Amino acid sequence: MFKLSQKQCLRVTKCVVLLAVVGLTGCASIMNGTTQSVFVNSTPSGAMVQVDGLQATTPAKLELKRSQASHDIRVAKEGYETAQMSIGRKVNPWLAGNLFWGYGLPLGVIVDFVSGGAWSLETDRVDLSLAPKEQKE
Fold first, then answer.
1. Which residues have CB under 8 Å from 18's CB, separation 6+?
2. Structural Rg of the chain based on CA atoms
3. Residue 26 or residue 44, greater confidence
4. Helix (H) or strand (E) holding 19
5. How many H helices and E strands in the chain?
């Protein structure tokens, strides 16, 4: 058996850590992250937007998880009908980067699917018009 000096041991440790970092990351997760900004606007503005437990007032910028299959957006304002829509997801083109930079190993693809980085939301902007409620006589 051979013995490593402290300097050689440190060098080996650095190499192992570097390989782990490179090997345990996915291309899509690195390039786009696991969340995506979605801008929600309403006419009229000042409405309450709710999605995935988040609340904000329009116009609003929300960070939505890419891993979730769909996001149901609800916009409401007093005196107006509530408007709703759903945003789905699609495959993130950066997922293919794992084939080139991941040396064909599936590890990066697995990381991207587990983290949510393998997906992109269908849109990054939502514009909803609220209809006035009819007056009861």
1. none
2. 23
3. 44
4. helix 6-23
5. 4, 9
